[in-house]
Each structure stands twice: as C-alpha cells, then as structure tokens.
Amino acid sequence: MINLIIVTHGKLSKGLVSAAQVIVGKTENITVHSLNPGDNITDFEKQVKNSIIQKMKEGNVLVLTDIPGGSPTNVSIAAMQDLDFECLTGTNLGMLLEAITARSSATDFKKYVEQVMDAGTASIHNLKKELQ
C-alpha cells in the first residue's frame, strides 16, 4: 500500500485533496497537515513525524510538500533523518492526481515516485507560448 501525506502552508493541503476529489472522486489513505499562522513549529514537526511513522506501518509513504525551503518541507526533511520514506516538494494538482491514480497499479515504489514527479513537471505549461 502507498500512503500519501500532504504537508503545506495554510489550507493548501486540504484544497489540493478537495480539488482532486472533484476529478477522481473519493480518495483514501491521504493524510494532510497544514501549518497555519501561530502554530508551534515543534508541535507541527511532531505531528508530521508521527503521521509518517503510523503510515509506514501500513506500507510505503510518499510525502508531498508545497515549496522547497519552507517549514513544511523542512519538517519533512527532519523526519527523513530517522525514517525511510520519499518526499517530493513543489506539489501541484497534476502531481497529486498522478499520485492518487497510479498508486493502485504501482509495483515499484521508486519508479512510482519518479512517475509522480514527472507528472508534476509535465503539468506546467506556458499557454501563451504554446498557443503562438
């Protein structure tokens, strides 16, 4: 089983899941963590790490974060010091949709992670340039 954990600033994690559900329907095995103004970063780090630990008991874990260098990414990096999971940053809806739809047929977790990352990159387009 592949478990997804989305760690972002504000309501982005919940919004991404909500948008994905509009497209693919009900989703399972997705945990979200939102860092909000005034949140204690140490508590947030513990919450994220505890979620990763719990989900690792069920299978592989892919953590998706919003931006490189941001606190959600940094707490995920901190958890990687002790735990074995994958983490991608720069998450967008295309990446999340791939993560959701491809995981049921994934046989190689490392290839799955690469596929998810590639989908995120492939979903970025300069439409003005493409239409010229």
List keywords for this structure.
alpha/beta; 6 helices; 4 strands; Rossmann fold; globular; 132 residues
| Count of separate structural domains | 1
Major pleated sheet: 4 strands, parallel
The CATH class is identified as Alpha Beta
Mean pLDDT rating = 97
Q: What separation lies between the terminal Cα atoms?
A: 44 Å
Notes on the protein architecture:
- The protein has 132 residues and is of the alpha/beta class.
- The protein has 6 helices and 4 strands; from the N terminus they run E-H-E-H-E-H-E-H-H-H.
- The protein has one domain: Rossmann fold.
- 52% of the residues lie in helices and 18% in strands.
- The chain has a 4-stranded parallel sheet, sandwiched between helices.
- Helix 1 packs across helix 4, helix 2 crosses helix 3 and helix 4 runs antiparallel to helix 5.
- The chain is globular, with a radius of gyration of 15 Å.
- The protein starts with a strand and ends with a helix.
- The model has no long low-confidence stretch (mean pLDDT 97).
Can you summarize this structure?
By secondary structure, this protein is of the alpha/beta class. The protein has one domain: Phosphotransferase system, mannose-type IIA component (Rossmann fold), CATH 3.40.50. It is globular, with a radius of gyration of 15 Å.
